[in-house]
Amino acid sequence: MFSRLNRNLKIFCLKRFIIHHSKESMRPSSDMAAFRAEFAKSKHVVVLTGAGISAESGVPTFRGAGGFWRKWQATELATPEAFSQNPSLVWEFYHYRRQVMLSKEPNAAHVAIAECEARLAKEGRRLVVITQNIDELHARAGSKNVIELHGSLFKVRCSNCGEVTVNKDNPICQALSGKGAPDPEAVDARIPVDQLPRCKVGGCGGLLRPHVVWFGEQLDDRVLSQTTDELHKCDICLVIGTSSVVYPAAMFAPELAMRGITVAEFNVEETPATQSFGYHFQGLCGSTIPQAVAP
After folding, report:
1. 127: left (phi over 0), alpha (psi -120 to 50) or beta
2. How far is CA 276 from CA 19, 253, 264, in A?
3. Do 253 and 275 touch, CB atoms closer than 8 A?
4. Angle between helices 221-233 and 249-258 (to 10 degrees)
5. Any catalytic annotation for residue 44?
6. Choice between 267 and 17, residue whose per-residue pLDDT is larger
7. Vertex 123 angle, CA 118 and 124, to 5°
């Protein structure tokens, strides 16, 4: 209870900080040369990424106008309650998302971040990606230091024994083959529970679920601990393609700014947190990021 109260108090304070800066502060700089000069001095870089960076690879965000799968938005399907009530429908949704990712590739921003990480490592410096995305595009681009806040489309967790395993089977079970069409007129498959993905560890046989953090669930304690450690060591932060409205991730960059850490936002539009940051670069991440982190 006390940890929840402390978190809520921190969110309240950070929101006040953001509002204050929105009213009182100068606009953030868009001077790329100045940012690159600061970046060149950094020793521990944290890159926070959200749906915007993957959208440039054609990955659906399921947010805002038109963000539907059939007649549902992600907030209606990506919940423990939805899975409990209709696991077949939820698995159709995630099967579709897994299928979509087979045709998507990392874009220039993903690649630039991965190449920068490798280059900095040779110089005794560290770059870590903390992503809200579940598509694994950072890893596919070559990034090694990746913290997946919300899990991965290609990991599953047993609802019985709790075992987490990598699963890139296509389809993940035979009953989902050819299912998951996003058309609003598509008929729900209504797959029997015993034909949905099942745990193969030690003959468990429990119902599998996507290993992702659903709405209403808490972040994994180990993941949150890793994240906190990286943020504590950070001396410069890039915020890429995030809406700055999903908590607790929305707290991370403003909290760094409160500590006096340089924070640069890269987005196609301003966010509620923009005015609290030192830099804001508006435009497609595939254009701005390669320039920002180039040698």
Report:
1. beta
2. 8, 9, 10
3. no
4. 20
5. no
6. 267
7. 95
* Each residue's pLDDT tens digit, 224-280: 999 999 999 999 999 999 988 778 888 999 999 999 999 999 999 999 999 999 999
Distance CA 237, CA 260 (A): 11
Catalytic residue, chosen from 44, 95, 138, 150, is 150
Tokens of 73: 């938005």
Q: Would you say the pTM of this structure is higher than 0.85?
A: yes
Residue pair 58/107 in contact (Cβ under 8 Å)? The answer is no
| Other C-beta atoms lying within 10 Å of the C-beta of residue 281 | 22
Amino acid letter, 197: P
DSSP the chain: -HHHHHHHHHHHHHHHHHHHHHHHSPPPB--HHHHHHHHHH-SEEEEEE-HHHHHTTT-----STT--BTTB-HHHHSSHHHHHH-HHHHHHHHHHHHHHHTT----HHHHHHHHHHHHHHHTT-EEEEEE---S-HHHHHT--SEEETTEEEEEEEETTT--EEE---SSSSGGGTT-----TTPPP----GGGS-B--GGG--PBEEEEE--TTPPPPHHHHHHHHHHHHH-SEEEEES--S-STTHHHHHHHHHHTT-EEEEEESS--TTGGGSSEEEES-HHHHHHHHS--
